[in-house]
Amino acid sequence: MSTRRRSSNSRSWNRCSTILSLALLTVAAALIGGSWAMTNSVFKAFSKDQTVTSSTLGWEKFNGEKTQLQYAVTSYNPAEHPRSKELVDSDQLSHTSYVCRIQIEGIYCAGQTHMEDSSTICTASLQSDVRRHRTFEVLVNRNGGGKLKWQPWNKFRTEKFPGAVSASNGKVDDYYVARYKLVNHGHHHPYIVGNYDPLEKLGGRIYAPLPGMQDTVEHEKGDILVEIEPVKYELRNIKLNKLRTEIKKNTTILGSTILSNIEDMTNQAETVITYDYAKVTYYGRQLGVGNGVPTKVIDPRTQQPVDIFWGVELTERKFETKAINTILQPGTAINVTLLGNYTEMEAPYHALLKAYYDDNSDATSRKLTGYMLSKDMEDVKIEFSPIYWIENGTLVPTTTTTTTTTTTSTTEATTTSEPVPITDTPLADLSNRFGGGVIDEEMSNEINSREEAASSRSIDKPESSISMSSIGGAGSGKRQSSGATTITRWSSSGAIALVVAATAVINAAAQWI
């Protein structure tokens, strides 16, 4: 029993939740409807038997907000028709009038707005029936994207103007928005907005009510409202919002191959890898911009022009080729892989849109904001494997040349015997004193090694050899005996010469002192 009660309570709660949700949605819809105007499509003549939807115009339920009236199509603007201050202050000419439409007997009829008792009403007519409604729709040129022109018309023109704006919901033979110019308008608007009926008589007629009259009047001339759509656009000065840009990169293998050298000498191996991918470019849709119109876009990343159709996602199949080459030794090969990043980018942007028209009129420019989508292949690069031998698949050893500089200092012990010159020798002086016969002519002042002294002993005529130590001992005047002992074998004449030389050295030293 308790289980049934819980189940029943659960179903009741679900019903209450559903009802509450529907109520909230209804309130939200009412709030949105109060602040946002409902928009209906505008049709225009394309050919004799066909109408098309306008990309820039719309019929919006009138709410009187400034944002709506900013782009509403005017039938009278006080700034364009200056009047005297008395007239402007005394009548409705001080207020701007807009093109509007209402339904009369199920048929949409075009008219114009005017002020009445501090409220805006729409006055329109169905031939002889003139109506005034407080609830109506106004014609809006969304974001100012359309170019409108009042084209002069008379009864002798039997065909509708291409681009003529329809007051109805797309039927070819329904009414079109037209106007008639008053000759003496006085306190009234100079133009009265009415309807062009293409089926009335030959060439059609314009029906517009005259001021103060309850019936409409048939006119054989007037103006028909025509929309001139651009034949091409140009989107330039594109600035991406980098902070809100989203980028996704997917690393993709574009292709692979093997380069080999089967020749007997080192050669350059080369090949090509061809790959394809889908490149996508899309700059979104905008109110007031004609979809499908040829558009030249200056790419913000490459500054190169790209041709697209506005509002249509452009998908191109791209085919590209990459050349690859390398130098290989005989009997070796290398694996090659081509990689790339398939990059998807979504980013908000603001730019300048320039529109060109087929009537050779001046181009118009306006700023817009949008959202772009781009898919492209980026960062294409080549990766090589290690080089290997074709015969057995083993890797080819790589030789690395390393330059090493080593400085080694080697000191070898060498013994050098250098002669010590005796600059002030008294030998020549002694020779003169003793008549040259006392000192042996074969005496020399050479310093020799002991081996040379030994060899000199084998010569028949004896020579005397004097070492540096013996000379030093004789020069000091002391240790003459020890100095003499350094001489191993002397002749008698050599001994006498030695004594004489020592005595001379001592005397010379004494004189210097």
Describe the structure.
The chain has 8 helices and 23 strands. It has helices at 2-35, 66-69, 85-90, 427-433, 450-456, 468-476, 480-485, 492-512, and strands at residues 39-47, 50-61, 74-76, 97-104, 107-116, 119-126, 129-133, 137-141, 147-154, 176-181, 191-197, 205-209, 216-219, 221-228, 230-240, 246-261, 267-282, 294-298, 305-309, 314-328, 332-357, 364-384, 388-389. Strands 15, 16, 17, 18, 19, 20, 21, 22 and 23 form a 9-stranded mixed sheet that branches. Strands 1, 2, 3, 4, 5, 6, 7 and 8 form an 8-stranded antiparallel sheet that branches. α6 (468-476) packs across α8. 18% of the residues lie in helices and 42% in strands. The chain has 3 domains: 37-228, no CATH class; 231-389, Proaerolysin, Chain A, domain 3, CATH 2.170.15; 427-512, no CATH class. It is an alpha+beta fold. This is Secreted protein.
